[in-house]
Amino acid sequence: MINKDFFLALDEMEKEKKINKEILIESIEQGLTSAYKKEYGDSVPVQVKLDATKNKITVIACRTVVEEVEDYDKEIAIDDAKEIKSNIKVGEMLKEDITPKNFSRIAAQTAKQVIMQRLNDVKKTMILGEVSDREGEILSGIVRRIENNTVYLEMAGNQLEGVLMPFDQVSTDKYFVGGQLKIYVKSVKLSGKNAQVIVSRSAPNFVKRLFEFEVPEIKAGLVVVKNIVREAGYRTKMAVYSEDSNIDAVGACIGPKGSRINTVVNELNGEKIDIVAWCADPIEFIALALNPAKVLMVQINEEEKMARAVVPDDKLSLAIGKAGQNVRLAAKLTGWKIDVKPYSQVMQSTEEVSKELDDLQDKDNDVENAEDVDLQDDNAKNAEAVDNQFEAVDANENKSEVEVNDEK
């Protein structure tokens, strides 16, 4: 079966679909093999071969050469085999050209279905490989359907399906069929012949990638994102750093008049973003991480990795944030447990401690004074006792003198 136009069409398909011609030929061979078996039965093992150099399609029956035939569909006697190929030997495989002149319409339809399925599988595998290489990247997707709060998207430029699970969604986003979204590729999962691309809009790295698009210094490696934490839909904190002292890492991310950070905020539907300078000194880093609140003082316990941040009284709620959000994100960003205290409470505690110390000092002084009084009393008593003893001695001496005089 010779068909030059058929092979020319393969060349065009290779260019259009960007699928290797060898893969196309293999797919067509499988499709035509299935079509032949549907038309003539599958009792005889057959192979379909496409010769692109000769523009020829050949159907070959394969039977084993034996001394005594037991299965006529799969075996052929040595004498019969030699009539076809004179130098054939027992045990070898005899390949015989049994190419039909034409396939029926049903067989041709079967061939077409197998070929198209095979081509779709090949294309999907190629696309899957491309998407797998883009894990951790941002792609565009179009919402095709929403089922049980799960959003299914058509990945732009291919036939793969992106799956946006409820925990990967953001409460401030609105999802509707036909809507276009930027999505972060978390992973690609294979399930049999099917493939699912797990995507997210709540991942912290989604925000990081958005900044990479907007900030050339990050993309060039001049500014490094040291850490990023997020409560999707509400607030993100990102610590940035540059080894080049001439580069303002925070300013580069904010951009002229806030143009760069505003672009990201708009994509996130108004989510608050705090850009802070990363610092190796934990005291300074903790103070910066509590932005936008002003921190007066930070005390740390390195063994327990705990910190106490002192803020002005009127900035306490700002430092803690709604439901503790700001201090919670600051703790995640720095890796320290942070306890926020108002300045007045710290000063009151300091005064109370100072007063307690003064009271203790006063008590110590009272005790010392009391001991001095007791000591003076004891000394007086001892002196009186000594005086009494001396008086007794004097009395005895006087008595003795009187007695002596009387005797005289």
Textual characterization of the structure:
It is a single chain. By secondary structure, the protein is α/β, with parallel strands linked by helices. The chain has twelve helices and 15 strands. The strands form four sheets. Strands 5-6-7-9-8 form a five-stranded mixed beta barrel. Strands 1, 2, 3 and 4 form a four-stranded mixed beta sheet that branches. The longest helix has 65 residues, at 343-407. The radius of gyration is 47 Å and the shape is elongated. 23% of the residues are buried.
Spatial gap, N to C terminus: 180 Å
Proportion of strand residues: 25-35%
Q: Give the fraction of residues assigned to helices.
A: 40-55%
Helix- and strand-based class? alpha/beta
Strand order of the largest sheet: 5-6-7-9-8
Poorly predicted residue ranges? 396-408
Task: Tell me the layout of helices and strands.
Blueprint: H1 4-17, H2 21-40, E1 46-51, E2 56-66, E3 75-77, H3 78-84, E4 93-97, H4 105-132, E5 138-147, E6 150-155, E7 161-164, E8 180-191, E9 194-200, H5 204-214, H6 216-219, E10 224-231, E11 235-241, H7 249-254, H8 259-267, E12 272-277, H9 282-289, E13 297-301, E14 306-311, H10 316-320, H11 325-334, E15 337-342, H12 343-407
Parallel strand pairs: 2-3, 7-9, 11-12, 14-15
Antiparallel strand pairs: 1-2, 2-4, 5-6, 5-8, 6-7, 8-9, 10-11, 13-14
